[in-house]
Amino acid sequence: MGEDAPILAADHVSLRFGGVRALTDVSFSVNRGEIFSIIGPNGAGKTSMVNCISGRYRPTEGSILWQGRDITRVATNRRAALGIGRTFQNLALFGHMSVLDNIMVGRHHLLSSGVVQGMLWWLGGAQREEIAHRREVEEIIDFLEIQAVRKAPAGTLSYGLRKRVELARAMALKPQLILLDEPMAGMNLEEKEDMARFIVDLNEEWGMTVLMIEHDMGVVMDISTRVMVLDFGRQIAIGSPEEVMAHPRVRSAYLGEEVEA
Fold it and tell me: 194 with 225, same domain?
């Protein structure tokens, strides 16, 4: 695939749970190197779409394409190995483990040493490999400014810091595309500003393409390259932040304005 080809595409994706339609005929693509945001009212299908991309859900209809390859039936762990990382709306950290160990979990699929090498850790490659992985994890810790809590149990941290640790673990996968499910939910203004800065920097400095769900419209408008709007599981607008916010159906969904016939 060429560099100009989309890194990810959803092709006429629909998702049903019994008689409930979570998504209906949603199509879009994400270009390499952009920050692509999905917005919409509660229950619009945003997390359902991300779950289809990550492999947690399988679309009832349609397909998910990764760099032109159909991955609709590829398992979640295989998608991580392909280069898709994610965070969760509800924190999914191991509370009893240290910050460092939580982040190291994100490196697991990158480890090549087997059981025998692990048993002979002090004698060879496994030791060198772990040291190399720890070095990269320490770079992430420095980037997210969590050095002071690197040895603390994750469950003892403030909510804002735990959000950073979850982002660190997703970054540790070395993904080409990172899926962020409401990364700023529950944060105060200062924490949101820090997280927005981290997201922009991991996009620009670390070269990660970002697909983000976020309710803070100020942040979405400030940092997104393009925005897609879902409402009741259907796509109602896609484009630049300015184009989307001027769209009459978006203004209706968010501001209650009447749409002219």
Answer: yes
Q: 239 and 222, same structural domain?
A: yes
Judge if pTM exceeds 0.85: yes
Distance of CA 229 to the CA centre of its chain: 17
Residue 78 inside a domain? The answer is yes
Residues 22-77: tens digit of each pLDDT = 999 999 999 999 999 999 988 899 999 999 999 999 999 999 999 999 999 999 98
Residue that terminates a domain, selected from 117, 145, 174: 174
Can you list the alpha helix ranges (DSSP code H) found in the chain? 46-54, 76-82, 99-105, 115-119, 125-143, 159-172, 189-204, 217-223, 241-246, 248-255
Can you tell me the distance from the alpha carbon of 166 to that of 177, in angstroms, rounded to the nearest whole number? Answer: 15
Residue 238 domain boundaries? 1-83+175-261
List 9's β-bridge partners, or say none: 29, 65
Domain count of the chain? 2
Q: CA dihedral defined by 184, 187, 189, 192, rounded to 10 degrees?
A: -30
Which residue matches tokens 């025998």?
A: 116
Q: How far is 184 from 117, CA to CA, in rounded Å?
A: 41
